[in-house]
Design brief:
Length: 1085
């Protein structure tokens, strides 16, 4: 209901118009809801809850109302600390932030309010007649009175309903008076009394912001705007364009807007690179920190394109507003570690000179939207002492961050979280503040917490528990009262408990999403795929649903997992356990004897799985083995028949998809075995591939495709589907060059042509590792599959390139993917009469589109967390094997040739990374071990090598003529080609600032093309010119052209100490060669 009118006054500044005052009219309302769960007065609360909007928790003892002084200065505290719940953010506070252009703080406030775990709301007190306060909205005193009035209204509102909750105002101003039982606390005093564990975090932020203008109540909006307008903006970085200039440039085509992704460069060094991907034009490359102009990875930026005669390096001058050369030099070990840690980063960075010459270059002229997030970092202490330090983020693509911190000894050997506050043009690094400490560097829990924070999954492992509200929604399931479906649960369900149904999963699985059935009928076969009915227990709008939507997916790490839904559902009540009645949603096909579908049935069922099999047991049945260990002998014959008939059917279905162009893409899955006592890695090996894996994958793909068609028929604009877009031709250039170097060819014109080429190459190569790497390169060229709402794109864009399907979705894993829960709800709605139920939120195109984008991001971060977890345990395992001076030598395959060395893949450990053969100056660093085959010679380099030559498929180095130990003719060449087999030495670089990475040194080729025999001349270690490896602090991935053979003479053997590793700066990563652990590889698509 509209009431009286009021005005909101704000001051704005711009370079074109200077200081201006804006006046906004507002109309008072009488129907603003309180947002409190269980409120009997505010009827709109129920509608908000139905839409999934979080509400205040009426079971907590207090409601907190922070004012502008607390929120503006200590937003990081409110954002990071989950203990601060039941927050009411008044519109008055939002307006005060808006008047200071504090968009990031406002976004964080809304983020807190949207988090179901925080039970917080934004209260529109400025347009609510009962909380109206007169006066100018830009006045600090008036805003204080407005917050007090809102708090007093809440207290009266609670008293009218006999609710005993306290209402507490949190402030950083001098404590002021409030009535009607409202308490006013200084934030510091409240934390000391109620949350003493948070007081250190508070003081760290207070200290970091004491010299700034974070508190918006220290001066009026007009005073602030005038001060900023008069301030000089002189600095080392170029000023960003004004909004008007950006709008004009975008309109006339001289500027381009996009999201930038940065290549790891050990900080904002001058050779840092960024790329802005464009689907309809060549990608834009930005080279150099000045050209990047304070842009960070993920920012939405505006770029000015450069002409052919320009380059971003040439235009951009070094930005040295601060004297930080000493800082960079002090951090040399991090520069050395960067490339090892970041190997495999997806960012498509242009690295080789041929690509740089043809790339479109640009310079960042504006940042439209910042995507700063909390960063995990380590400390680079100020050598001069004091409180001013640099935080070194573990993500090497993020620049160092300046911060104030007094007790550096407390965090010197720990990971900690740091937030960025600003990045002015006169500062080489952004300014930030300390948020909180994590664990000690190198400890397992600290490393896991670091992964979770970096991937924006959670602030810690402890934060991934479920709220009391969610746990209250769970069904009872205990030893005394095991859950069983009630008669109400069974109503309307098809009873399949007498049908032979079984599940096949990895050994030890607890969260069993799917089961299958296959039986003969009079006219052919009946195939069934039965999926846990999670939607029965996770109701839309519930606390559990909100938590599942926020998480998006279960996160699987190498040694643990973090569930999307509580364990009582994921491992017991919903899990399709053997010999237990379970609720399911099933897809059942009637097929003829040729496996052509005659009828398809969808619906809710009740099943009783006859057996939980692991893949190895099912494979033994398929192979004809009898008396399989762990299976009931009486049931085994029926299971064997079911598995064999299912396999026969899936072979036919898969062959049909292959004829349509379905691809068999490569992924490497490493399995770890852990010591139960120490949690150390006991073994690591690639996952064994069995035919039964493909059988279950095909059954799940068949069900997902059928459901996709069904929900699209009913909801043509709001169905949640999954697509895999066709890659562009230029993405296959690297694959084609590498294959042609081996005398083979690959046709990438369509998925069918590519599938046939990959199959032909596998047959002609006669090398399983080469066939695998060719598939891996094809995988690199693919775009990621993603979710979308069908109304957001044309029907021809629905197709799934990799699976060769016109329609596809995710239906078969609702225990671990929120997308599947949404699809279940859509399918069940499609099976009902339109008049039977109101239109749910899940059928809104806008909601589905927004949810799809969020799920895409959650899935991506989860996959990256999986990969980083795998790399963590690979590093720990290699470190264990390297103990007591042992050499870890393994066979590898050359995956790519680069301008300064090779990318090598080691199948045994699933590790891939760079092997460097040349440094930034062009000096060739060929290990002596390539001639001797001895790992102990890997750190000794052959001096006098020349003619370093590298192209897309082959790298060659001319050896010195005076090699006395081997007679090499007239200066033989050592050559390496893509897909060559090599032997490498694996070691771990111990670093105190980042995760210890595995690095490789070349030992030998598996079969050398050098004709060699022992010479009768002087012994090798006396006259042959060699030099010991020495790592350097500043080495580029793209060195200058070689400057000729080295003039070093004599023998420089490594001393008795363990030799230092010899490797250089960052390489462009070997794409997305997956190390993810998955149950069904096809479902990852």
């Amino acid at each position: 209901m509209l009431g009286v009118r009021s005005e909101s006054v704000a001051f704005r500044r711009s370079k074109r118009q200077g200081l201006t005052m804006s006046v906004t009219e507002r109309y008072m309302r009488n129907d603003i809801p309180c947002g409190l769960h269980g409120c009997r007065t505010c009827t709109m609360n129920a509608e908000l809850a139905r839409k999934g909007v979080p509400l205040l928790d009426d079971t907590l003892g207090q409601i907190l109302v922070p004012d502008a002084s607390a929120v503006s200065r200590f937003i990081a505290l409110f954002e990071q600390e989950d203990e601060l719940k039941n927050l009411v953010f008044c519109q008055t506070v939002i307006d005060a932030l808006d008047r200071r252009n504090r968009t990031r703080t406002m976004r964080n406030v809304r983020k807190i309010a949207a988090d179901p775990a925080r039970s917080s709301v934004v209260f529109a007190n400025e347009v609510f007649a009962q909380t109206r306060v007169h006066g100018k909205s830009a006045d600090v005193d008036r805003d204080t009175r407005a917050v007090v009035r809102a708090a007093e209204w809440y207290r009266q509102h609670l008293e009218a309903q006999n609710k005993a909750q306290r209402v507490v105002i949190l402030t950083q101003q001098e404590v002021y008076l409030a009535e009607h039982g409202v308490e006013v606390w200084r934030l510091e005093d409240y934390l000391a009394e109620q949350h003493p564990k948070l007081i250190d975090h508070f003081r760290a932020i207070e200290q970091a912001t004491q010299d700034g203008d974070m508190d918006v109540t220290t001066m009026s909006a007009g005073e602030f705007a005038q001060a900023r307008l008069q301030a000089k903006a002189q600095g080392s970085y170029a000023k960003h364009y004004s909004e008007g200039d950006i709008s004009d440039g975008l309109r006339n085509g001289t500027l381009v807007r996009g999201t930038i992704r940065l290549r790891a460069g050990g900080g904002m060094r001058s050779e840092s690179q960024g790329v802005i991907e464009r689907s309809d034009a060549p990608d834009i490359v930005v080279i150099g920190r000045a050209a990047l102009n304070r842009a960070c990875s993920g920012d939405t930026v505006v770029v000015r394109l450069l002409g052919n005669s320009e380059s971003s390096v040439g235009e951009a001058k070094a930005a040295d507003g601060d004297d930080d050369d000493a800082d960079d030099a002090a951090d040399s070990e991090d520069a050395l570690a960067v490339e090892q840690i970041e190997a495999g980063e997806e960012a498509p960075v242009v690295a080789d000179k041929a690509n740089l010459a043809t790339a479109v270059h640009g310079v960042v002229v504006g940042v439209v939207e910042r995507r700063w997030r909390p960063y995990v970092a380590t400390l680079q202490a100020d050598v001069a002492g004091g409180m001013r330090h640099l935080a070194v983020p573990v993500d090497a693509a993020v620049p160092k961050i300046r911060m104030h911190y007094a007790d550096t000894a407390a965090i010197a050997d720990r990971y900690f979280v740091v937030a960025v506050d600003s990045w002015e043009a006169d500062s080489q690094y952004p300014q930030g503040h300390f948020v909180r400490a994590l664990g000690r560097i190198g400890t397992l829990d600290a490393e896991i917490d670091t992964i979770l924070v970096e991937r924006q999954i959670a602030v810690s492992q402890a934060a991934l528990g479920f709220s009391e509200a969610s746990l209250r929604e769970m069904p009872v399931n205990s030893a005394e009262r095991p859950w069983a479906p009630s008669s109400c649960d069974l109503e309307g369900r098809r009873d399949l408990r007498d049908t032979l149904i079984f599940s096949i999963d990895p050994r030890g699985s607890q969260d069993i999403d799917d089961a299958v059935s296959m039986r003969r009928t009079r006219t052919g076969f009946e195939l069934g795929v039965h999926i846990a009915d999670v939607a029965q227990f996770v109701q839309a709008g519930s606390a559990t649903d909100a938590a599942a939507r926020a998480r998006g997916t279960t996160v699987y790490l190498a040694d643990r997992r973090f569930n999307m839904i509580p364990e009582v559902l994921s491992e017991r009540v919903c899990s399709l356990r053997g010999s237990s009645d379970r609720l399911a949603v099933s897809v059942i096909w009637d097929m003829d004897h040729e496996y052509n579908v005659e009828r398809t049935w969808f619906g809710r069922t009740v099943i009783r799985s006859a057996c939980e099999m692991c893949y190895e047991q099912a494979q033994e049945l398929l192979d004809g083995q009898r008396k399989v260990e762990g299976l009931d002998p009486k049931l085994e014959p029926q299971l064997a028949t079911g598995v064999k008939e299912l396999t026969t059917a899936m072979r036919v279905l898969r062959s049909r998809r292959r004829l349509g162009g379905a691809l068999e893409l490569a992924s490497t899955e490493i399995k770890f075995a852990f010591d139960p006592q120490t949690h150390a890695v006991a073994a690591a090996a690639p996952k064994r591939s069995l035919e039964i894996h493909g059988v279950i994958e095909e059954a799940m793909v068949f069900a997902n495709a059928a459901v996709a068609r069904r929900i699209h028929e009913s909801f043509p604009t709001a169905a949640l589907l999954r697509r895999h877009r066709s890659p562009t031709a230029d993405r296959f250039e690297r694959l084609q060059r590498a294959v042609r170097a081996r005398g083979l060819d690959v046709d990438c014109s369509s998925n069918l042509a590519l599938a046939q080429s990959l199959q032909r190459i596998a047959g002609e190569a006669g090398d399983a590792d080469m066939a695998f790497l060719v598939k891996a390169m094809a995988t690199l060229a693919m775009q990621e599959a993603d979710y979308f709402a069908t109304g957001d794109c044309a029907t021809e864009a629905f197709a799934h390139y990799g699976l060769a399907l016109e329609y596809y979705t995710h239906f078969t894993s609702p225990i671990r993917r929120y997308a599947d829960i949404v699809v279940h709800r859509q399918l069940l709605a499609a099976l009902q009469e339109p008049s039977e139920t109101p239109k749910p939120t899940e059928l809104s195109q806008a909601w589905v589109g927004t949810t799809a984008m969020r799920l895409n991001e959650r899935n991506r971060q989860s996959k990256l967390a999986q990969r980083e977890s795998t790399e963590l345990f690979q590093s720990r395992y290699i470190a264990q094997l390297s103990g007591d001076g042992q050499h870890v030598v393994a066979d590898g395959v050359v995956a790519e040739v680069r301008t300064n060395g090779l990318i090598v893949f080691v199948p045994k450990f699933g590790i891939r990374g760079p092997v460097h053969l040349r440094d930034k100056t062009g000096r060739i660093r060929l290990p002596l071990s390539t001639l001797t085959g001895r790992p102990r010679d890997a750190d000794t380099h052959i001096d006098g090598c020349s003619d370093f030559s590298a192209d897309a498929g082959r790298l060659s180095i001319r050896l010195p003529i005076d090699a006395p130990a081997f007679h090499l003719g007239g200066g033989a060449n050592v050559a390496f080609s893509v897909f060559d087999h090599v032997t490498v030495l694996l070691r771990v670089l111990e670093t105190r600032r980042r995760r210890a990475p595995v690095y490789m040194t070349l030992v030998s080729r598996a079969s050398s093309n050098i004709r060699a025999y022992r010479s009768t001349l002087a012994p090798l270690d006396r006259t042959f010119r060699v030099s010991a490896a020495r790592p350097t602090a500043d080495q580029d991935a793209e060195p200058a052209e070689p400057k000729g053979p080295s003039k070093t003479t004599g023998v420089q053997k490594p001393g008795p100490a363990k030799p230092s590793p010899d490797y250089y700066s960052v390489l462009e990563k070997f794409g997305q060669l997956s190390l993810l652990e998955t149950t069904h590889a096809a479902q990852m698509l």
